[in-house]
Amino acid sequence: MRVQTRVSLVGILGNGILAAGKITVGFLTGSMAVVGDGIDSASDIITSVIGLFAARISNKPPDQEHPYGHERAETIATKLLSFIIAFAGFQLLVSTVGQLISGEAVQVPGIAALVVTAVSILGKAGLALYKGRAGRAIDSPMLVADAKNMRNDILLSAGVLAGVGLTLALELPVLDRILALIISLFIIKTGIQIFLETSVELMDGMNDPELYRRVFAAVHRVDGAQHPHKARIRRINTQLMVELDVEVDSAMTVRQGHGIANQVERQIRQAIPHVYDVLIHIEPLGVHHSQEAYGLCEADVELESPEGKASS
To answer: What is the pTM of this model?
Structure first.
């Protein structure tokens, strides 16, 4: 939690300086593209603030209302962020389209717009590197996603730098407005992507079939454990919960079946990092239920893609 708090505070300070500089200079020089870049940086401030509060909530221990803990607070916070980012992009889109339709006279951006954008690229590169390393060190999906978003911001700022430079060279201020329009669409796209990514976790989805393959392989390494099925893996922030059914010889005692389940659990934990809990249901060999609506069997994960599985 200390690492995430420190990283969030650094992000708030760094993005605050960059956003304030770009928005101020953008308005003073008449560059809506730079203003849009500043709005994008301002959304990163909100990211850091949300991350700060989410870290405090997600580290609370489990209670009666939340027996699985509070770690999905970070996922919910990230989804909230997606709405904020998309809204900021939509506001810029509406403003830019209105200016293009009205045909109002606009000034050619000043040289200060180029300078502040170049400084922003350097600042964003430093923040992206810092957050990426910290996120991988503590295995925080939100920090890693934030670092990736900042790398996208660098490309965005580079486009703004090139666009403003071209506007100055050709003295065509309409190019700046067109660039601002493209930036607004980019911001909206980022918000939608974050929304979709967090939906997978909140719906208890798992888009990495390799984890299921590792689970089944772990079961097969245990003598006496057969026909693993109804496998379900859910992610709770940085942790994974694994559930599955395993069949054993019906002549085994409860103690023997329990011993096999313990061996399967150990194998799964060795094969997959960050496993919070493993729940194994032992069944007699050859007993199949007529309806097993939940979970996956080995045949499901052998398919190449989710689309192929859906069609089978």
So the answer is: 0.64
